[in-house]
UniProtKB/TrEMBL annotation:
<dbReference type="InterPro" id="IPR014777">
    <property type="entry name" value="4pyrrole_Mease_sub1"/>
</dbReference>
<comment type="pathway">
    <text>Cofactor biosynthesis; adenosylcobalamin biosynthesis.</text>
</comment>
<dbReference type="Pfam" id="PF00590">
    <property type="entry name" value="TP_methylase"/>
</dbReference>
<keyword id="KW-0949">S-adenosyl-L-methionine</keyword>
<dbReference type="GO" id="GO:0043819">
    <property type="term" value="F:precorrin-6A synthase (deacetylating) activity"/>
</dbReference>
<dbReference type="GO" id="GO:0009236">
    <property type="term" value="P:cobalamin biosynthetic process"/>
</dbReference>
<keyword id="KW-0808">Transferase</keyword>
<keyword id="KW-0489">Methyltransferase</keyword>
<dbReference type="InterPro" id="IPR012797">
    <property type="entry name" value="CobF"/>
</dbReference>
<keyword id="KW-0169">Cobalamin biosynthesis</keyword>
<protein>
    <recommendedName>
        <fullName>Precorrin-6A synthase [deacetylating]</fullName>
        <ecNumber>2.1.1.152</ecNumber>
    </recommendedName>
</protein>
<feature type="domain" description="Tetrapyrrole methylase">
    <location>
        <begin position="4"/>
        <end position="222"/>
    </location>
</feature>
<dbReference type="InterPro" id="IPR035996">
    <property type="entry name" value="4pyrrol_Methylase_sf"/>
</dbReference>
<dbReference type="InterPro" id="IPR014776">
    <property type="entry name" value="4pyrrole_Mease_sub2"/>
</dbReference>
<dbReference type="InterPro" id="IPR000878">
    <property type="entry name" value="4pyrrol_Mease"/>
</dbReference>
<dbReference type="GO" id="GO:0032259">
    <property type="term" value="P:methylation"/>
</dbReference>
Length: 252
């Protein structure tokens, strides 16, 4: 029997792991850390640093494995992602069964929370052979961290807010029915494609980490600064994780 535990680690700050997450990591027989290439070597190092900070059980083994890369040249986005997920599931299978041939508990550290705009649970569902149990340990979501970093509420009084992706904002514009939009997975600064008047933006990169960068203000003024800052930070670190909230100001 393999027990797969997906542990949400928030934005990578060991202080933000829940007590449950720390307990599960220390109860695992094996922790798998993915390597995503030299340009994202810091991501593996962050996972190693978290383990060094919270592990007290010397019996837990840590094993690294190479993660497949997505074919970004495929014009069909969903097909490309599906093939990529299949390749990741295969890599997980190989790493798990090579290192736990007699069964046991294996943990994977997942950025943020496994339930929000993360495909780890979908990939885990493709693993084989059975029997295998899959458990998800919640982590602090990036939208919670963004709101805390800027000291703002996510919603106006009695009003809804919507969480979406940069691709959706770019292709379909401002979502109807809300004046507050939280945008994730946006590598193209898609706020450039919507009318900027009467909109405030609260942007954060590496939120909750030592590298944290925060910018906020009217989108017409702050948008260009975010684009430049984001490009510089990505070039410096080789990767970037960012998120932002857009709030439309409507006369009542």
């Amino acid at each position: 029997m393999i027990d797969l535990v997906l542990v949400g680690i928030g934005t990578g700050n060991p202080e933000h792991l829940t007590l449950q997450a720390v307990r599960e990591l220390n109860a695992a027989d094996l922790i798998l850390i993915p390597r995503k290439g030299e340009d994202k070597a810091d991501l593996a190092e962050l996972r190693r640093s978290i383990c060094a900070e919270v592990l007290t059980n010397p019996a837990v083994r840590i094993v690294e494995f190479d993660m497949p890369r997505r074919d970004v040249a495929d014009p069909d986005y969903r097909r490309g992602v599906a093939h990529w997920h299949q390749a990741i599931a295969h890599a997980w299978n190989e790493a798990i069964h090579a290192n736990l041939p007699q069964g046991g508990t294996v943990a994977l550290l997942v950025w943020g929370d496994p339930a929000l705009y993360d495909s780890t649970l979908r990939i885990a569902a493709q693993l084989s052979p059975a029997p295998m149990t899959i458990r998800s340990i919640p982590g602090i979501m990036s939208l919670n961290m963004l709101a805390a970093a800027h000291a703002i509420p996510l919603n106006d009084i009695g009003a809804p807010f919507l969480v979406t992706t940069g691709r959706q904002l770019r292709d379909h514009g401002w979502p109807p029915g809300t004046d507050t939009v939280v945008v994730m997975l946006d590598g193209d600064c898609s706020f450039q494609h919507i009318p900027a008047d009467a909109i405030s933006i609260y942007w954060g990169a590496y939120v909750g980490m030592a590298e944290q960068i925060l910018l906020s203000g009217p989108l017409t003024q702050i948008g260009p600064r975010i684009i430049a800052t984001r490009a510089e930070a990505r070039a410096r670190h080789g990767w970037i994780m960012d998120i932002y909230l857009l709030r439309r100001h409507v006369a009542r």
